[in-house]
Amino acid sequence: xxxxxxxxxxxxxxxxxxxxxxxxxxxxxxxxxxxxxxxxxxxxxxxxxxxxxxxxxxxxxxxxxxxxxxxxxxxxxxxxxxxxxxxxxxxxxxxxxxxxxxxxxxxxxxxxxxxxxxxxxxxxxxxxxxxxxxxxxxxxxxxxxxxxxxxxxxxxxxxxxxxxxxxxxxxxxxxxxxxxxxxxxxxxxxxxxxxxxxxxxxxxxxxxxxxxxxxxxxxxxxxxxxxxxxxxxxxxxxxxxxxxxxxxxxxxxxxxxxxxxxxxxxxxxxxxxxxxxxxxxxxxxxxxxxxxxxxxxxxxxxxxxxxxxxxxxxxxxxxxxxxxxxxxxxxxxxxxxxxxxxxxxxxxxxxxxxxxxxxxxxxxxxxxxxxxxxxxxxxxxxxxxxxxxxxxxxxxxxxxxxxxxxxxxxxxxxxxxxxxxxxxxxxxxxxxxxxxxxxxxxxxxxxxxxxxxxxxxxxxxxxxxxxxxxxxxxxxxxxxxxxxxxxxxxxxxxxxxxxxxxxxxxxxxxxxxxxxxxxxxxxxxxxxxxxxxxxxxxxxxxxxxxxxxxxxxxxxxxxxxxxxxxxxxxxxxxxxxxxxxxxxxxxxxxxxxxxxxxxxxxxxxxxxxxxxxxxxxxxxxxxxxxxxxxxxxxxxxxxxxxxxxxxxxxxxxxxxxxxxxxxxxxxxxxxxxxxxxxxxxxxxxxxxxxxxxxxxxxxxxxxxxxxxxxxxxxxxxxxxxxxxxxxxxxxxxxxxxxxxxxxxxxxxxxxxxxxxxxxxxxxxxxxxxxxxxxxxxxxxxxxxxxxx
Amino acid sequence: xxxxxxxxxxxxxxxxxxxxxxxxxxxxxxxxxxxxxxxxxxxxxxxxxxxxxxxxxxxxxxxxxxxxxxxxxxxxxxxxxxxxxxxxxxxxxxxxxxxxxxxxxxxxxxxxxxxxxxxxxxxxxxxxxxxxxxxxxxxxxxxxxxxxxxxxxxxxxxxxxxxxxxxxxxxxxxxxxxxxxxxxxxxxxxxxxxxxxxxxxxxxxxxxxxxxxxxxxxxxxxxxxxxxxxxxxxxxxxxxxxxxxxxxxxxxxxxxxxxxxxxxxxxxxxxxxxxxxxxxxxxxxxxxxxxxxxxxxxxxxxxxxxxxxxxxxxxxxxxxxxxxxxxxxxxxxxxxxxxxxxxxxxxxxxxxxxxxxxxxxxxxxxxxxxxxxxxxxxxxxxxxxxxxxxxxxxxxxxxxxxxxxxxxxxxxxxxxxxxxxxxxxxxxxxxxxxxxxxxxxxxxxxxxxxxxxxxxxxxxxxxxxxxxxxxxxxxxxxxxxxxxxxxxxxxxxxxxxxxxxxxxxxxxxxxxxxxxxxxxxxxxxxxxxxxxxxxxxxxxxxxxxxxxxxxxxxxxxxxxxxxxxxxxxxxxxxxxxxxxxxxxxxx
Lengths: 788, 587
What we know:
The structure holds 2 protein chains of 2 kinds. By secondary structure, chain A is mainly alpha-helical. Chain A contains 31 helices and 11 strands. Chain B is α+β, with helices and mostly antiparallel strands. In chain B, helix 4 (about 445-485) packs antiparallel against helix 5 (about 490-520) and helix 6 (about 525-555) runs antiparallel to helix 7 (about 560-585). At the A-B interface, helix 1, helix 23, helix 25 and strand 10 of A face helix 2, strand 22, strand 25, helix 4 and helix 7 of B. Chain A: Its cofactor is Mn(2+); Mg(2+). Chain A: GO terms for molecular function: dolichyl-diphosphooligosaccharide-protein glycotransferase activity; metal ion binding. Chain A: Its EC number is 2.4.99.18.
């Protein structure tokens, strides 16, 4: 009997090997895959199953679906803790314009002139927004309503970003698969789904451009890599459309229009020029340029501004290069040619680098800096938190392929961008995710792959059954082509099972900690709507401080529909969105002098401010005051920015130094500067606060935010009156009194004997009015001033 | 004229023998109730009598009702019909008596009237610190088409503080109650202005409009949603609103409204309370035994002239309200529900959304209500729309909280429509995916790829066949093994025969595939040829081992030699097979 068993056993081993090879080697992109590469897991599981390719796609599908689900649900903290509400500041504007779009239609939206913002200037909204976000949400809402799914537009807006995070995960998967392999792609998809850097801008309720733009960004990259790889116009046009979507969604499209030329440029430098590259870039540049100019807000910028010049330069360079290539075949003078090429590329490179240098270090950053720093959006501590965890495990991979070169270029660029402006950390996040996914993937490949082979149970040769079923389908697409890859390609590395398991465990621990960390950061740092505040008591019960909405809703219900509300620009969008009232300045910040005027009103004394407010037709003034509950983001803490911006425009009237004590401190107590203690903002913030005793340990008028007893307790307002103060005093609204009646005349009015019986001789139709008691000026006499 | 009228009234022969009026002014409503002892002094029995309301108060009338004391001390409410009295201004109702009042008979009737917006704030604007004063203007006497023998009026106020009041017949005032009368022998339709100016800090809340939407689902749920516009109709707030005073002084803004209670049905679930900008987080919900109480606190306290707007909604189980008999359905629900105590609704719209496919809809209301044309409503999984009944009515008070009944027929088969729709949609989705995956939609043919695919599919078949052929050898081995034990030559021969036959067909198939590969111009054909060649050798070896075993069985060779030769054969065969394998791998 032992005799006869022999061959059979042998055979079964070989059959098992076949099974394994079949499972592990199917790859969508046709790249020869290194052993159990892409998901060793996929190969291992599918070893004994009927259709390995089917199993693998099912597995990928499941993982992507789960990544989507995880990404979606981890963004719902705010909805579960609070409610389905739009967060923060900018989203309120986006929501308001989406609402406008969904009620009035697309053309009405494009032509929308918003007379409720920037009174009296107004704002051409259609021409000053990236409409991609609103159109996306509006379209989803429209489609759902077409299907009789009666969802409110607010809910569409709230859940748009979490849904798009799933699409981002999928496009990241596609991109990473193109650049590396499927396993890395799946890991990258999982990373991007929960990475805090991206969640920070895409939690439910954060209805902002970035939420959909990151998807567009990743998808454009994917299509670009695909088009460079295939050289097909089809993919390139897809890339252009995706780029168009990106342009319509976010100003960060500039990132793409610089990155892709950079990629092309580096390829040229590395002598990787090919016809495919030529087709891809030429098509992309021209079609993408034309498409991007269709967005009203972008307009002619792509051919005018310096940010876009790099793309044009590379386009010209590529044409020149292609022309030289063409000439190369015809000309004989080889040396002259290479010299020529070198000269051209050097010149172009110098131009390219100068343009980039000028753009990002010079103008843009500097001009934006002043205004944007007063917003708490730029807190680096929060933004950097996801980074340290991923950065150390970034691999140094220099296995450069044409398309793989895209990766290092992308990462270098993203790091540079993020360094220039913290907010652009967002663009770095996907890159970091992809790189770390690749690192993890290759580590797992190395430490996990061989074990799998050994531990794999003997697989049965199932090809018979398989073939009976599918023998007819010659053109079946389901990736059935199985190849017997020989397993002996890679020599066994001398890794003991202990090292392998330890490394694997460590890696898994790291991944687990990463997931925990992500959830923690999301839940604690990014999941507050900031419109609703919550405080927790000792027993864990929760108090909701809903002062913002209280005051905004009061404005909405109990003021005249056309009332004009003056506030610092931070609250402009919220007032427009929640209170539906006209504002003077808002978060758009396009007109600095208007903002400075408001800042000047806030920082002047009451009568000077009254003149400004009169000239601006202000009916109400809204301020945020945190002194009662200790809310630190209030207007007194922002006050110095108002002063500075006002000083920038009106240096004669406002001087920042006046608001400091002689020691150079900014204090609100008795030692504070008298200018501060009598300015409008101070008076409005602390009006009647001096009488208020919050608890018995502190004197009346004790400001909890600044921990000081206020210096001016006896505040009287002459031109303003308190119209509304919210429950916790967080929002205070003042009514600007109408001008008082003129002073009584110190003499009697002229008593002109009226012509008693004046009857017009004109017919009733043609009767013209006449003025009774019309003043007749006598020349040469000075009029008494008071009587005018 | 007057004489004629008196005669007309006297024609009924009715006289108000004794009238006790109570005017309740303690809230923002004027609730006037009167107990009238009717006497028929005419010659014939009387079927009905007439109720009258002063012309000034007519437009403010929200509710009027009359009842008689029944036999078992129960109030039996009477039927009212609006009518007109010739030559007299005012609002008149004809009240049908339960049984005719015989000549000389007497009957005690209770009449209840509720008037809204009759208390006028005076002064009309007050500051936050001031108290609210209101003026009521009414009639000292009962406004009646019949002569009154004796009557008294008792006025209940909201507070002791009274600025002024008319002093007809020297009324007595005791705390918040003023008593007028008794007045004797009052002529029909007599009017004398009663004016009381007093302090009233009761919440002057008015629902300026309410839209109540009732959505019936046959899947067990009734969703109710009320959209409410609320206004404080007391004295307007003049000057600033100081939060400090409001928080520190209890009597500051005493007439303002901080919160009120709304009582929902006991089975109400999933209550929500929100407005355009989100959830109103200041509300509280309390589930009691026989009701659910919502403490509605608007976002901000309501001062005079301030308004707010909110939506409150909840779900109810349909088994409590929906009755069915075959295809007949009846929905019995409150036409309007409680919002706050002593509520005043200026304008109400009720919408009842019935399930898709409901027909023969008929609405029974407890009181007259204006029907607007029916509408259609489209929501989840609807195709031809749900019928919506729309009804409106102005000026309602608490007494209007009564049930309405909606009758309709609904074919139960239609219940299947929604699930089928979902199933159909998924079917179409999957079908589309299948079609998309199975068909080739490319507009150009790529010959190279086509050939590659063909070659791949042929190679696939070759692989299978070769594997099958190798399997045959294994079968043969087993046959040989069995033969060694059983020594049954017949079995061996038949096994060999089948092997031969199957082997031939397989080899032929492979050869055919090889030819096809060659036709496609693939270099794999050579490899397949090589496999064929090697396979021939394997076949040879198998045959050899077969013969060896025959010889062993026949005793022509010794066991040891057989084992060694078998070993070498097996070794050779293994070598060949591994070569075939490596060739297969290379395919």
